[in-house]
Automatic annotation (TrEMBL):
Domain ABC transporter, residue spans: 15-244
Protein name: Putative ABC transporter ATP-binding protein YbhF
Gene responsible for this protein: ybhF_1
PROSITE patterns for this protein: ABC_TRANSPORTER_1 (PS00211), ABC_TRANSPORTER_2 (PS50893)
Lineage top rank: taxon: Bacteria
Alphabetical list of Pfam families matching this protein: ABC_tran (PF00005)
Keyword Nucleotide-binding among UniProt keywords: yes
Segments crossing the lipid bilayer: none
Molecular function via GO: ATP binding; ATP hydrolysis activity
Gene3D superfamilies tied to this protein: P-loop containing nucleotide triphosphate hydrolases (3.40.50.300)
Keyword match Transport: yes
Amino acid sequence: MKQSNDSDMGKPPIISIRGLTKTYKGGHQALKGIDLEIREGEILALLGPNGAGKTTLISTICGLVTPTSGTVSVGGKDIIKDYRATRSLIGLVPQELTLGAFDVVIDTIRFSRGLFGMKPDERYLDSLLADLSLLDKKQSMVSRLSGGMKRRVLIAKALAHQPRVLFLDEPTAGVDVELRKDMWKLVEKLRQEGVTIILTTHYIEEAEEIADRVGVISDGRLLVIDEKDNLMNSLGQKQLMVDLKTPISALPDSLKDFDLLLSDDGQRLTYTFDAKGERTGITALLHAVSEAGLGLKDLNTSQSSLEDIFVNLVHNEGRQK
């Protein structure tokens, strides 16, 4: 498992995880020796299929699930020995809508703030509600809100006590585009204020857009974690698409050593190569195409997306079992 070096960043990690395992009573092992350090102020995206262990990992860090073995510290304090101190550093937005139906929005937010021993601060709470487009719903009962508005209230609850770490567990699953945009604006604002943000998501394009680092979890194991750009450069592949002037029915023998893919319509050759390699083979390929008497219409290149990398990693992990 590849992990970038936190010591290079000059700051101790805000979260440190060592040898973390979790086996439930039924025998299911949800976490299998997770080692992970999360830097203060970064945005980390955790990707993985359903049942990979993402929610168990988050719940363990937050103190909601007791680990079977291993250690977790938040802000330098152990999550079990110093539960109150570590939990006060964390805000959690769960997948499920867990709100009192007959509560008033502002009372819900005030209660969450007081629960962590924070002094009242109406100015901060109003600012938080405004950031989430909830200020006009301040005196509304939660039961009268739409699902999207209830999701916003959950986020406000998680941020009411001004945590240093915010967990977003599938935050935009099933929400509208407007909420998604508002959420990412708030995430960027929190990053600027030094808050560490960890999100799990099925929307890989969101991780690709906002995350500093990306981790991939599958079957309770952390397969890889690295800077997003490093991950895409080291594990991504580039492809050269060669469009032909005249379609062909089969590859000429002189091109079969290049591991080309011929499109169904016979008009495109796709060549996969390592952009960081000493030799890409592109020059030799184009020369061979010319020698074969094939006329070139157009050339294009593309690079693997984060989704491609994720799918390949999880697929390869499954094949190795």
